[in-house]
Amino acid sequence: MKTCLVVDDSSVVRKVARRILEDLAFTVREAADGQAALDACDEAMPDGILLDWNMPVMEGLEFLQILRKREGGDVPRVIFCTTNNDFEHITKAIEAGANEYIMKPFDQDILREKLEEVGLLEKAPAT
Amino acid sequence: MISATDYDFFKKFLKLHSGLILSDDKHYLLESRLVPLLRKFELPDFSRLAANLRDNANSVVAQAVIEAMTTNESLFFRDKTPFEVFTTVMLPKLHAARPPSAPLRIWCAAASTGQEPYSLAMTLKENPHLIGTRRVEFLCTDLSNEVLERAASGRYNQFEVQRGLPIQMLMKYFKKVDDMWEITPQLKTGMTFRKLNLLHPFVGLGQFDIVFCRNVLIYFDAPTKTDILNRIAKVTAPDGYLVLGGAETVMGLGEAYRPLPNQRGFYVPNVPAPASMSAAVASR
Ligand SMILES: C[S@@+](CC[C@H](N)C(=O)[O-])C[C@H]1O[C@@H](n2cnc3c(N)ncnc32)[C@H](O)[C@@H]1O
């Protein structure tokens, strides 16, 4: 079973994401900020990370920059998931090593397709 | 509530004018799609709407009813495989077979809001080596004016650009305008958007190398599908291609096409043996 770490300071968003991800057969862990996410990665590197941008303690971009420099930190597929939906933010995220980018609000279809896009999910049969 | 008589009328009207097959249990769908039109055209109820269509089947109201009953859902790079086969099989074959000056002609026969032609255009831009400097023309048609206008505008909301479109492609080919994402004008080069009902004759379209006719035949009955396929074959080059939707097939729908070996959803015209050859056989 694939593992996904959901990093978001909103417990509501974490809950929504968890429900969708568990439906897609992921094992889900949660972190409320970038520092907590780094700790979680130290414990066990997840296959995928769903990453909010604006968070207290350590924001998403900084977390990603640190993660990508760590040993094994290049493994997780990272999908940013944020209300920052302008060109500049997306560019920064990709440069920092994000694999995909979701602009909130999102729905189940978008999350599923982005997971497919980064190779964490098998392609669904033809729609 | 729609009366049984009126339901029957709408059913026949839609079959005749758009090909749509409405089964007998779609009252809810019909009502929910038509209610906004009652308001828009200030009609008191469905029977007045039906009466209006009986009087004039070509009115603005009639067109609105037809458009309201279409399903326009589309997404970028839908089903992925067609865009892979486009680059691995179709483009190399056709590029090699055509004289350098001949443009490649692609028809998106149910283009809806444009995700399909733009996905093809992006695919071409990503693979410039496949066709060199050859011109590519896209004819994008649909029954609905409303979706064609949106297609031609190339503007998509945040949800739409997140359906099927990889983030790198979004950054490369779109720019953000207010709350919308607008496709770069470059990708519209060679694209024509035009209203065309697949039930009507295909006159003045010319000949196509590739026809995408995806996720529209599903709404029609078998004779209508067969007729459309036969007529598409007549405007397709003998060495051209037809691409259907993931749930569609030509099986049982006449002889115009046969599947590409090992490729579900892709078809080539069944070309009759050249006249000289059959003559030679006959003279034996
Ligand atoms: C589900 S969309 C398919 C869009 C795109 N080809 C795809 O696969 O994503 C179906 C489209 O077919 C159009 N359509 C329905 N009946 C039609 C007809 N008789 N002639 C032309 N287009 C028609 C609808 O307006 C709608 O935009």
UniProtKB/TrEMBL annotation, chain A:
| Sequence ranges assigned to domain Response regulatory in this UniProt record | 3-119
Instruction: Fetch the Gene3D superfamilies from UniProt.
Output: 3.40.50.2300
List of residues that carry 4-aspartylphosphate: 52
One matching Pfam family: Response_reg
UniProt keyword list: Phosphoprotein
Among the GO biological process terms of this entry, one is: phosphorelay signal transduction system
PANTHER family cross-referenced by the UniProt entry: TWO-COMPONENT RESPONSE REGULATOR, TWO-COMPONENT RESPONSE REGULATOR ARR22
Protein name according to UniProt = Response regulator
Query: What species was this sequence derived from?
Result: Azorhizobium oxalatiphilum
Lineage from the top down? Answer: Bacteria, Pseudomonadati, Pseudomonadota, Alphaproteobacteria, Hyphomicrobiales
TrEMBL record, chain B:
Q: Spell out the reaction equation it catalyses.
A: L-glutamyl-[protein] + S-adenosyl-L-methionine = [protein]-L-glutamate 5-O-methyl ester + S-adenosyl-L-homocysteine
Matching entries from Pfam families are given as: CheR, CheR_N
Q: Name one GO molecular function term.
A: protein-glutamate O-methyltransferase activity
- InterPro entries assigned to the protein according to its UniProt record, in alphabetical order: Bact_Chemotaxis_MeTrfase, CheR_C, CheR_MeTrfase, CheR_N, CheR_N_sf, SAM-dependent_MTases_sf
- Tell me the enzyme class: transferase
Q: What is its EC number?
A: 2.1.1.80
Which keywords annotate this record?
Methyltransferase, S-adenosyl-L-methionine, Transferase
Give the Gene3D superfamilies listed for this entry.
Chemotaxis receptor methyltransferase CheR, N-terminal domain, Vaccinia Virus protein VP39
- Which intervals hold domain CheR-type methyltransferase? 1-266
What is one Gene Ontology biological process annotated in the Swiss-Prot or TrEMBL record?
methylation
Q: What domain of life?
A: Bacteria
Q: What is the name of this protein?
A: protein-glutamate O-methyltransferase
Q: Which gene encodes it?
A: cheR1
